Amino acid sequence: MLIDANQALSNTEQNPIDELVRKVQQGDQRAFEQLYRKHERRVFGLCLRLLASPEYAEDVTQEVFVQLWHKIAQFQGQSQFSTWLHSVTSNIAISYLRKHKNWLQKVVSIEGSGMNEQSAQMCHGLNGLDKLIVRLPERARLVFVLHAVEGYRHEEIANMLGMAVGSSKSQYHRARQLLQEWYDNE
To answer: What pTM does this model have?
Structure first.
């Protein structure tokens, strides 16, 4: 059996992220810092899209990395690390929303739980579609981000958010309609 040189190299080389993860699983704090630097912006971006608040997104981003440090041993490498991290991030952001929902409902109405247009325009780091996404009502925003951006199926979203599959599809449709309307008016 002949093995080509490229195949031999690919079998011995390890993905740099996999190596970082392995070091973090062994307690290497420097490796954790590198992992944080590589993924912090994407985690923050996902949190911002889900929560529609830079302050809440910062809080949840920090919580994600605290949880990551404690739960990194649970990562078995059956998927890409970034896929696993985004799943953890989504779950923590949704949990955060559930914990703070009563307080948030007193401050803002359910329909207004996205950012208003002016706030979205002033939010640094957001552009294009992201500025429109954060304006969506909460449930529509969550379903849209989880389905269209993160690639979850409606069955998974329904399970995560405690809603019927039909409701997930309906909220997704609603989000698309609103985004199209807003985009056409810009």
So the answer is: 0.73
